[in-house]
Amino acid sequence: MPGSIRRRLAVAVTLVAASATVAATTAVGAFDNAQQAKDAIRSGKAKNVILLIGDGMGDSEITLARDYTVGAKGRLNMDRFPLTGAYTTYAVHADGTPDYVTDSAASGTGWATGVKTVNGRISKTPGTDRPVRTLLELARKSGYATGDVTTAELTDATPAVIASHATDRSCQGPADMAKCPADTLAAGGPGSIAEQEVDHKVDVLLGGGRQRFDQKVTAGKYKNLTVTQQARKVGYQVVTDAASLSKARPGRPVLGLFAPGNVPTEWTGKGAAVGGTDPQRCVTSNPGRPKSTPSLADSATKAIRLLEAKQRRNHPRQGFFLQIEGASIDKQDHAADPCGQIGETAAFDRAVKVARAYAAKHPDTLVVTTADHGHTSQIVPLEATPPGLSSTLVTNEGQQLKVNYSTNTPGHAQEHTGTEVRIAAQGPQAYRVLGVTDQTDLFTTIREALRLR
Q1: Is 104 a catalytic residue?
Q2: Residue 43 CB: number of other CB atoms within 10 A?
Q3: FRET partner for 254 with CA separation of 20 to 30 A, picked from 177, 226, 244, 400?
């Protein structure tokens, strides 16, 4: 056993002993029980991996959601993992030098492939623009079932990185290929992100982005068919709402398209403003979200059931690899919309609960929760007068909280930040998240856990 692994295991054992004492004597221990912490230091093989990505979910975003929903002394589901570390998120320039603030395409490529790349690129090398094998591709090759669940368009950067390769993240559908001429089917490339996701036969694809799949294929075997029609031709069950999702059955892959673009947010409220807002409570039922839209937790639950059922029938010794993204934490942070942002973080946290509940019954499951990059929102004193946009919220504790957005001038989208972000885990190989690691190390953690070659 390498020395670095021995040291991490030694630290983990110490943390288990110390944390077990704390958990026994406080109401809000760092994790649910000592046995989970003991399980998390095991170095054996995982049968399943569930990777949960809160897009743009830095520590400030987590703290804001915690303070608003369960209180300063409370704990979210994502706070209850037995082992927690941090990882660095930088991208690179074409020459390999660091680009300190990443976008979702480059950051996702890091954990999907183990290779850092330039901002905007999907699972391709930074200088030579060559595709790099992803975790999902390796998992499929090894007989695992695979799933990709998001609240964004399925062709957005984070869901795309595990199931496609593109020179630019904008090349989402057959009509969106202006920045990826070499990737087109006519040029002998793999096609758009939507075409590749279907072509990869990902077992479960759930999210938004119907507008991309409604575009027509321009070359090859499925020319003049829409990507959705292509999906049906190759055996996909296509579902569009919670009712049809509930009827999907194992045995054939499932493509869920729940919105033309991104799935509408769960919460709404007044956006931050120059000079602040009057104290507000968030509206927890967005009138712009159709009632037939499945929640992220619902999609996660169904995805796990479908993947597990497929493997039970076809490969009982092999499990599944599932990525789940809460995408609009980031999108509402860009828009300086605190209520939309908090609501999406809370929705993501419920998906974390689903994953951890499954792992509690299946301890051979590695569950990892992290983010792709940090973002804008900062909790500031009520008396502060920040130069950007701010909003005052009235939390569920009945207290006022001020959140500030100042990574760009008012009138422009707020920006990502280059900070390290949290990574937490439980199950086989979870000890690998301890300390300060890099996004590319997550690729190795999952690859080792599933014994992918």
Answers
A1: yes
A2: 15
A3: 177
Domain ranges across the chain: 3-450
Give tens-digit pLDDT for 167-209. 999 999 999 999 999 999 999 999 999 999 999 999 999 999 9
What is the pTM assigned to this prediction? 0.93
How many C-beta atoms lie closer than 10 Å to residue 322's C-beta?
A: 30
Going through 223-330 in order, the beta strands assigned E by DSSP cover 237-239, 254-257, 273-274, 320-326
Q: Which tens digit of pLDDT belongs to each residue from 297-331?
A: 999 999 999 999 999 988 888 999 999 999 999 99
Task: Give kind and range of the element (H or E) at residue 206.
Answer: strand 204-208
Selecting among 19, 104, 299, 328, the annotated active-site residue is 104
Give every residue of the chain whose pLDDT is below 50, as ranges: 1, 3, 6, 11-29
Asked if the 3-450 domain carries CATH number 3.40.720.10, the reply is yes
Own/partner pairs for 182-189, CB < 8 Å, 24+ apart?
Answer: 182/129, 184/218, 184/219, 185/217, 185/218, 185/219, 185/220, 186/218, 186/219
Q: Is 359 left (phi over 0), alpha (psi -120 to 50) or beta?
A: alpha
| Contact indicator for 318, 144 with CB cutoff of 8 Å | yes
15 touches 83 (CB < 8 A): yes
Residue type, 204: V
